[in-house]
Amino acid sequence: MDHCLVTRKRGDMVRCDGVFPPETTFRELLVTENSNVAIRVSGLGKMYRMYSRPSDLLWELLLRKTRHREHWALRDINFEVGKGEVVGVIGRNGAGKTTLLRIIAGTLDQTKGTVDVKGRVSAIMVLGTGFNMDLSGRENILLGGLVLGMTHDEIAAKTDDIVSFSGLQDFIDSPCREYSSGMVARLAFSIAVSVDPDILIVDEALSTGDMIFNAKSYARMREIAKSGATVLFVTHSLQQIYDLCDKAILLERGGVAAVGEPRTVGYLYEQKVHEEMAALNQTNAPVLQIGNWVSNESRKAEIVNVDVFSVTKTERTSRFKDGDEYLIRIAVKAYESVRSVSIGYDIRTQTGVQVYGFSTSNAGVEENLVAGETKEFTFWLRPSLNNGTYFLNVGIAENISDTDHSNHYSMMHFIGDSVTIEGITDSVFPGVSNMRGEFQKSKVMADERSLDK
Ligand SMILES: Nc1ncnc2c1ncn2[C@@H]1O[C@H](COP(=O)(O)OP(=O)(O)OP(=O)(O)O)[C@@H](O)[C@H]1O
Predict the structure, then answer these.
(1) pTM
(2) Domain ABC transporter: where (predicted)?
(3) How far does residue 92's CA lie from ligand 1's centre (Å)?
(4) The CATH number of the domain covering residues in 286-424
(5) 96 CA from centroid of ligand 1 (Å)
(6) ipTM, 2 dp
């Protein structure tokens, strides 16, 4: 796997525009505005020509007759990234994430539209060229450093730090072809962050590193962001999006499906994935695994009140004490009569990890709503959360399955973070939920055969 390091000089405003621009040329613009925008993408499109056979390209050139079909990997992409923002790009395989990042980094030309980038870009691409796999890690540091615009002296001064950050001291003089893909990603990341970039672009390089390196990389990315630099990265992990980002971009089949607050975009992504899986009939996942931050497009019904009540203390509360009993009450006002609805909730950590969810459909109950009525739904639970902050999301969905055998719901109203809950426990344990584990006994084993007994 090749990794690519790219740089543009500090202070440059680089722009590429027009249809079918010449290969790898970037025209510099005079910066006429003093804006806080680090990256501006306008009307961006990328088309690949697809040939059924390699010889079709030759025939096309010779006969001047089209023998390809067009495949638009990106269509009409528009967004801005502010200076110092950390932005995560998510989307299914083939959505266009890598293509987008490569165009912004300047390693790939677009077919349409413009990309304005202000500042020195340092990019780590999973695909592309740049690392010479026959050279050693140390030689690639030199090569990468030069590509990033450093002088020999600067690289020499930084090499020890780069090697130490990568944790590859024992392998640094071996050829990179002997490295695992994770090791190459580590080295590429270490080089890219060593130049104090204005804009750091990371395409899934972190997904190949091990846990310890990933933790170090996140910390470094946070530092880079804190220093005022802009970070744009691709990930398949919503947790990383919730953890690190100020903003998320969801790409779908080459278009921007959503840009905005990370959890809003993350939930929308989950909802789309869930809907697709449900359409494929491959899941019976409870309805509240899907959701939107606040969504009420149907206007058929609305959640008008949510409260949490402590049965143990007989009072309204926003605390879940480990082992106590609670009621979650959700009041719904119907504007239309709707049959077969499911009402429910889920509880998530601050980083969006779903801890638990439950709904009337999980309980095997289908409810009906009558136009004009307000109905309250009460759920009992005995939570066992670790100390910390959690969010209660609530939703109401209509069963739109056309058979009795599938569970396909359409969300009518969803409120993310409707109540912020404080988890409280006296126990000390790692993780989110107390599973009531107990130590039973220890015994000295006579020999390994006793393991079978
Ligand atoms: N060199 C190429 N020639 C033709 N089509 C390409 C080329 N590179 C990418 N594509 C197509 O462009 C689309 C977007 O690809 P891209 O690699 O950007 O997706 P992605 O979102 O990064 O996917 P993944 O999550 O799998 O990495 C896909 O349909 C892909 O097949």
Answers:
(1) 0.62
(2) 52-278
(3) 11
(4) 2.70.50.60
(5) 6
(6) 0.97
